[in-house]
Design brief:
Two copies of one chain form a homodimer. By secondary structure, the first copy, chain A, is of the alpha/beta class. Helices cover about 40% and strands about 10% of the residues of chain A. Chain A is built from nine helices and ten strands. In chain A, the strands form two sheets. A six-stranded parallel sheet of chain A has the order 3-2-1-10-9-8. A four-stranded parallel sheet of chain A has the order 4-5-6-7. In chain A, helix 4 runs parallel beside helix 5 (about 115-140). Chain A is globular. The first copy, chain A, starts with 9 loop residues before the first strand and ends with a helix. The interface of A and B includes residues 117, 151, 152 and 157 of A.
Chain lengths: ~280, ~280
């Protein structure tokens, strides 16, 4: 077992406690439990208002590791695709207000009824290209999140770390830091090409605004669960990231509606803190 | 739309009608519906007996495109791994009796309680290595089936075509034809690296004993369904295989317990014939 991670690097993706807390309670919960980073989701942000949230986050001394989420670029027609662009531009503005370290992009799957996967992937590339200048001038890095291939049709047609890094290379040749990749172990743990160092991409570490360490996986029915449960070797994946030079936050995101979402959020955050030190 | 495929190339994976027919009825059903190939599963084969099945298949003029299945190499201890080896040796003998064109390998996932994915993959490589000589002397090509990454933990830790071809390159450098890859569109459709021609592997077509064209996919809950349903562009994937030189059978395998498994198998086979000509 490698050394336990620095507890200061833990960050809370607010989906983890979304069923029982609003954003203000999430912010205060992080501060109360010594969690230094937070990644809000936009529905909760909209309830509270971005400026109000930014102030509360600042007052509580938290880093905004990311805003979840932009993306969903493919659309059946030009109007649908333009609506997605407009939504991403608003998300970038909110991320700027929060001084978020990135806007996470869940890129979208196939338009309804379509079987044109290559076309959907082109729409993703073009969509990111269309919002990239605005993101850069707003000072908000965009972070492509490769999703597990089981979500290819309906959520995201970027499905491996290599594919996401290829997109970064295409759209941001100079590796300026304005375009990167969110590495979520739940989505990439199975992939023999997820080891950054062996991918011979010298700029890869600079591409990663954060590492999402939470997650578990037994089979198709399992959604991201508590760190340490399931089959993912978290210390190994963390070591791969660190040997490639990564030193950033470790975000926890639990989407386990049947279990953790029902518990007392304070208990969930305590468990996250403990597991971060014992199994990550 | 490309030209419809040669109807003589259709093959039935017997899982498609497993709920309502035994192997003899499957063999006779293929002959009755003009389906020229068959891939039996071992449970049905054991009921009938391999020699009896071989005779019935011969009498009906069918090709055995594959036997399903060997594999499941990883085990928690030496005894479990040896039991898997022994089972694979028996499967090879049955495949030889049937004059099957390959033994399909579903390689196995993580041993219970393990998080050592690299270790499981090593056990797979070693397991194939241990049975390879026997397969070669029996004249039975082994065909590694990469399974969708959502089955990585519990069914197969070989999850992409590239990964399976790497294993072939490692264990059978000369591309002798004794080790290959089953390409099942349900498992590989999402992967941008599934296009053989662009993988710069000149020997790849010689590695593919058959192409499994059936399948559909909307999301994690969907098992392989009837050809044409869902999001997979079958003519495109077939064209990728053919541009790489593939000219073999097109196997249909439907594992849709809630729908096709309940229907009259004769109706299912008629639908397979029609869909093969209209949507593949």
């Amino acid at each position: 077992m490698s050394n336990p991670p620095n507890p200061e690097l833990l960050s809370l993706n607010t989906a983890t406690v979304r069923e029982r807390w609003n954003l203000r309670r999430m912010i205060e919960g992080c501060a109360r439990h010594g969690i230094r980073g937070i990644s809000p989701w936009r529905d909760k942000l909209a309830e509270m208002g971005a400026k109000e949230a930014a102030k509360a986050i600042r007052d509580n001394g938290l880093a905004v590791t990311g805003l979840c989420r932009g993306g969903m670029f493919p659309g059946a027609d030009r109007r649908a695709r333009q609506a997605a662009i407009d939504d991403n531009l608003r998300a970038i503005d909110d991320a700027a207000t929060l001084e978020a370290r990135c806007l996470v992009l869940v890129v979208g799957g196939l338009p309804t009824g379509s079987k044109d996967l290559a076309g959907a992937r082109t729409m993703v590339r073009d969509g990111i290209g269309e919002v990239f200048d605005h993101a850069r001038s707003a000072g908000v890095p965009l972070a492509i999140e490769p999703l597990h291939p089981m979500y290819c049709a309906d959520r995201a047609c970027v499905n491996t770390l290599a594919q996401a890094l290829d997109l970064c290379d295409e759209l941001d040749r100079s590796a300026s830091g304005a375009l990167g990749v969110v590495v979520d172990v739940y989505h990439v743990w199975w992939d023999p090409r997820s080891r950054l160092k062996s991918s011979a991409r010298r700029q890869a570490p600079a591409r990663v605004p954060y590492l999402r360490l939470a997650g578990a996986h037994h089979g198709p029915a399992h959604r991201p669960g508590m760190m340490g449960d399931g089959v993912i070797d978290l210390p190994l994946l963390r070591s791969w990231m660190e040997e490639a030079g990564y030193r950033g936050f470790h975000e926890v995101e639990i989407l386990s509606s049947g279990n953790w979402w029902r518990r007392d959020p304070d208990e969930v955050l305590v468990t996250c803190r403990v597991r971060h030190q014992t199994v990550c």
